[in-house]
Write a structure and sequence with these properties.
This protein has one domain: Rossmann fold. Helix content is 26%, strand content 28%. The protein has 4 helices and 7 strands, in the order βαβαββαβββα. The protein has a 7-stranded mixed β-sheet. The radius of gyration is 15 Å and the shape is globular.
Length: 162
């Protein structure tokens, strides 16, 4: 089966949050999403929109120093990882990394390359490129769960930036 890829041109932080919101609705029952992009690309803004779609109303900050921030909801728990400050993937063993990746979890991982080879393969890989004052976001499915999410996302996108 061919894996889907969607691209979006994002021109504001609110549009990035809307994309996160829409993906949360397309991936409701667990999954792994890698978030790649330079500092300031909008990864945490995307996560904020994702969490808002699930009902989280408090401040969303990047877990740069704690490595992971859990958000518990009725049906699912979301783990937001930021591995930017990781000096070695071995540090992930110390936080029990394998315990976070389970059937009722959505794992959103910023800077996943720093966690290789200990991280499982993602369902989706989201790559954000900064082009002038805009963002080009490419979301790639890596398996059937990712394909299903992108098919749903493609049908239900609420941003005007497709």
């Amino acid at each position: 089966m061919k894996h889907l890829t969607l691209q979006y041109k994002i021109d504001s932080s609110s549009a990035m949050e809307l994309l996160g919101n829409d993906l949360a609705k397309a991936l409701p029952n667990g999954g792994i999403v890698y978030l790649q992009g330079d500092l300031g690309a909008g990864k945490t803004t995307f996560v904020r929109g994702f969490l808002r779609a699930l009902g989280y109303e408090q401040t969303v900050k990047s877990p740069t120093y704690t490595l992971v921030e859990p958000y518990e909801f009725n049906q699912v728990v979301v783990y937001h990882f930021d591995l930017y400050r990781l000096s070695s993937s071995d540090e992930l063993e110390g936080i029990g990394i394998r315990d976070y990746f389970h059937a009722n979890a959505i794992c959103l991982v910023e800077w996943p390359q720093k966690g290789a080879p200990l991280l499982p393969e993602p369902d989706l890989t989201l790559v954000i490129q900064i082009i002038e004052n805009k963002r080009l976001v490419e979301i790639k499915a890596n398996n059937n769960r990712g394909n299903d999410a992108l098919q749903t996302l493609g049908r239900s996108i609420t941003t005007d930036n497709q």
